[in-house]
Amino acid sequence: MADEVTSRGKNYSIIAVLGMFSFLTALSGSSTNLAIPKIAIDMDISSSMATWIVQIGLITTAILLVMFGHMGDILSKNVVFLAGGIGFLVGSAITGFAPNYAIILFGRVIQAIGSAMIMANSMGIVTQYFPDKRRAEALAVISMFISVGSISGPGIGGLIISASSWRWIYWINIPLGLIILWLGFKFLPVPKESWARVREVMRGANWTGQNLFTIGIIIFFLSGTFFQSGRSKFLIGLAFLIVGGLISLGAFFQD
């Protein structure tokens, strides 16, 4: 009975770690949408340039989700997840302290890489630690954290932006994330993978498929730029949409 209680307590702690990091990544994404006008004014950039602060994060996450999920399966889901947490915090710090537009984009890419590592492995970690009869409930809790984080952006993000600088929507991730990371390293065992093993996994990855998927996603996203330009570039946008979609789908059939 004592072992069962201890195991259940550990599982609740794991859910808290997974859920809170999922909450932070979702909150940061939805808050960034609100911060775009403020960032555009602060950095003296056009609204179309400012939208890339959001889009570059979406593109990066979409491109890397499958790859990081594969890495988690081969190496360790815990390792990739916790590394993603570190990357997310580093990206948040870079974005928050960014002196110009280019550094903001760079920080958002790093943040999105971390988010992709978290998102790709959080559900898999649940399957490792929760038995079948409780797995669906645990997965639902993680999904709830993501949903709450997304819908909290207008409230929490709006409060932060109204009360202070837009930079605080990124700075706030740092102390909260450090606490979650500490809990993560405490409750998620981290196997000691040698760098030789990491290099072996990277060499064995399907880079052709990954590169095709990357190209396809970028082309797919660029279609929106042409659609926003009006009817004169509608056909170009449609071509980008179709070609990008086909290349992205084709990447999954590439061995």
TrEMBL record:
It comes from the Bacteria. It is a multi-pass membrane protein. Keywords: Membrane, Transmembrane, Transmembrane helix, Transport. One of its GO terms (molecular function) is transmembrane transporter activity. Residues 14-255 form the Major facilitator superfamily (MFS) profile domain. It is found in: Cell membrane. GO terms for cellular component: plasma membrane. Its main location: membrane. The chain crosses the membrane at residues 12-29, 49-67, 79-97, 103-126, 138-162, 168-188, 209-228, 234-253. The keyword Transmembrane applies. The keyword Transmembrane applies. It holds the Pfam family MFS_1. This is MFS transporter. The lineage of its organism: Bacteria, Bacillati, Bacillota, Bacilli, Lactobacillales.
